[in-house]
Amino acid sequence: MKETEISKHTISVLVDNESGVLARVIGLFSGRGYNIESLTVAEVDADSHQSRITVVTSGTPMVIEQIKAQLSRLVPVHKVSDLTLSGPSVERELALIKVIATGEQRVESLRIADIFKARAVDATNNSFVYEIIGSPEKINAFIKLMEPLGLSEISRTGVAAISRGTLTM
Amino acid sequence: MAERILSGSEVVLQALADQGVEVVFGYPGGAVLPLYDEIFKQNRIRHVLVRHEQAAVHAAEGYARSTGKVGVVLVTSGPGATNAVTGLTDALMDSIPVVCLTGQVPTHLIGNDAFQEADTTGITRPCTKHNYLVKNPDKLARTMHEAFHVASSGRPGPVVIDLPKDILVGKAPYLEPAQVQHRTYNPVVKGDRSQIEEAMEMLASAKKPILYCGGGVINSGTQACKLLTEFTRMTGAPITLTLMGLGAYPASDKQYLGMVGMHGTYESNMSMHDCDVMVAIGARFDDRVTGNLDFFAPNSQKIQIDIDQSSINKNVPVDIGIIGDVGHVLEDMIKVWKAKQYKIEANALDSWWKEIEGWRGKHCLSYKQPKDVIKPQHVIRSIHAATRDRKTYITTDVGQHQMWAAQHFGFEHPYEWMTSGGLGTMGYGMPAALGVQVAHPDATVVCFTGDASIMMNIQECATMTQYRLPIKTVILNNRYMGMVRQWQQLLHGSRYSESYSETLPDFVKLSEAFGFTGLTCDNPADLDDAIKKMLEIDGPVILDVAVDDKENCYPMIPSGKPHNEMLLGQETNGDEAIDSDEGMVLV
Ligand SMILES: Cc1ncc(C[n+]2csc(CCOP(=O)(O)OP(=O)(O)O)c2C)c(N)n1
Ligand SMILES: [Mg+2]
Q1: Which of A78, B191, B258, B519 is 20 to 30 A from B131 via CA?
Q2: Is B483 one of the annotated active-site residues of the chain?
Q3: Which residues pair with B102 in a beta bridge?
C-alpha cells in the first residue's frame, strides 16, 4: 500500500475496566488529531474486569501504526489488535430506525424492512421503529432507502467486531 | 503476611520510605494537611518547601535527572494541582520520572464544585504518563507502589496520584512493594536478537555511518552511556547528541561532532544530512532535530532503538526499529559486532572522516570576544573552564542562553546537564537547580538563565536561602527575550514587538533582599574575577552579566529548512533575513 494512502481500520482494544479508561482512549485520539469513525465499549469479562473497545479509524499506514503504538502504551491496556490486518473478521452493528409515515410509504418501508431482515420493534398508526443488525454498509443502505419514506430518527450502536475462525486476541 | 492497618497518610509515607524516597518537594494546603502532619512526625523523609508548585515539579525533575532516581512532589488540591501542570507536562515531554501526590477534596464532595476542587485526573490525563484517583483505601498502597514502577520503568514519565482527604485520614492496609505486580504494564527491555543482527550487518556495510543519540541513553543509565562509548569507539563512527542527550558521550572525544539540530553544529547536521546509515539510539526525531522532514537524511537507511514503540516510525520511517532498553540493546549490539568481527570498511570511513573534518574546519561555534562588551558564549566557556576540576551540574532556562550553554559547555558525563528540551519551559532553571543541589549538596550547581526567564520562578530565591543551597545563578543579561528578538529580527523584519525587558530589577539588591550575594559584571576584563568570586562564595549567588544585546545564536537551521541550509551567523554570512513562508507558520 502506498505510504500516503488513507485506509479504514477496525481496532480492538482490551482494557482494564477502570474509571477514566475510556477518557484516556478518546483523549488520545482527539489530542493527537486521529479521527474516530465509530467507537463501542462494554465489559466482556466481569471476573477480570476487562472491557473491549472497538474503534473504527482511518489514516495512512504510518498513522495507523502510531495509533496502535499509542494505544498499546496506555497503562490499563492489555492488548491491541488490528482486525483489518489480522485476517478476515466479522463486523456487526445494530441500529434503531424510526420511520414516521402513513399509507403507501408506510407499507413500502415494511416491504424494504422485510428484504433487509429488519424487525419492527415498535409500531403506532403512523410510525415504526425498525431494528436492523448487520455490517455498517448494510445499515447505511437501509437508511438510504428509508430516507424518502419518512425516516425521522436514527440510533446506532457502532461497530462490534471479531476475527473469523480460530484466531483470538 | 498479616496486613498492617495504618492511616492513609501513614500508608503514603511508608510507601515513600519503602520506595527509597529521601526527599519530597512540596507545598502544603488544606487537602494535604494530614500528610504534612505525618511528615512532621517522622524524620526518614525530608521535605523541601518550594514557593510555587510549578517549581516543586521542576525541582523534582532536577533531582531525578541528576540522580537517575524518581523525583517526588506533594501539592494540595485545586490550585496546588493546577500550578503543577506545567511541570508535569515538562516531565512528560522530557521523559523524567516523577511521582506527584496531589490532595483532593473528600470523596463524597468530588463533583460538587467543592472549595479547591479541581478535576485533577481529568486535567492531568494528557500531561502525565499515567494518573490515579484513589477512592478505595484498599488500593492506596498498591497504587503508590505501582506509580513508582510506572514512572521509572519503560519510557519514564510523570505519574499523578490524586488523594482525597478522607482516604488520607481513614484507615488503610499497607502492602510491601514486593507484594504488588502490574497486570498489564510490562515494558519490553530486551531487543529482538535477529533485528539487532540485521542492524549490525547494515551498519557494518555503511560508508558514511552516524550515531544519533538522545536522552533515552541517559534515562537508560550510566552503564548504557558506558556501553555507548564502547560501541562508538569499536565502530569508529561519528556520533552526535541531541539537546537531551548531552553528556551521554564525552564532548571532548574526537568522534563527537557536537549537538545536532536547529542550533547544533555544522558538522553534525551536515553529517546527518549526508550519512548513508543512521543509528538513532534513544532519540525521537524531534522537529528541532530533523528540520524539514522531506529533506531529512535523504540517502540514508535508518535504524532506531527506543523503549517506546510509539517513538518508532512516528515522524521518520525507519528500516529497522528495535524496541527495547538502550542499555540492553547496546550490550547485544556489542556482542554481535564482536562475534561477527564486523568492521566498517577503512577506506570508506577514512574519506567520510575527511569530509567531516572539512565541515569541522568551518569552526561554526567560533566568536570574537571584543574588549568592550562581553559575548554570552564567552561567559559559558569561562565558567566551563573555571569549573573543570569540580563536580559540576548545569541547569538552564529557555532561550539563547540555553542554546549557548548547550553548544559551549562541554559535558563529559551523563546526569550533569538539566534543561527543558521538549516543552521549552522558561522558569525551569532555578527550581531544577534546587533539586540538583539537594541531591548533590557538595557539588557546584550552576544555573544559566536569561533576564526574562529568571523572572518566571524568581520566588525560588527564598527556597535557596532557606535551605542554604549554594546555587550559582548566572544571568546572561541581554535586556531582551533574546530568542524571541532573534526570530523577530530574522523572520519579522526586525519588529521587536514586546520582547524588550523594559523594567528589570536590580539583581544585586534583589539577591540581598533574599539574603544572599548578588554580583554584576559588564566588562570583559573583569569576567574571570567575577566568576572566581562567585565560585568562592559559600552560599547562593546571582551573577548578573551584561552581555552583547545584539548577539544571535548560530548556527541555526531555520524552521522548515533542511540540515544543509544552515545559517552560520556573523562570522560568515551575517544576520540575513529568512525568506520562508513555510517557516513562518512553524515554531
Ligand atoms: C513559559 C514560556 N513562555 C514563553 C516562552 C517563549 N520564549 C522562548 S525563549 C523566550 C525568551 C527568553 O528570554 P531570556 O530568558 O532573556 O533568554 P535569552 O533568549 O535572552 O537568552 C521566550 C519568551 C517560553 N519558552 N516559555
Ligand atoms: Mg535575555
Answers
A1: B191
A2: yes
A3: B75, B162
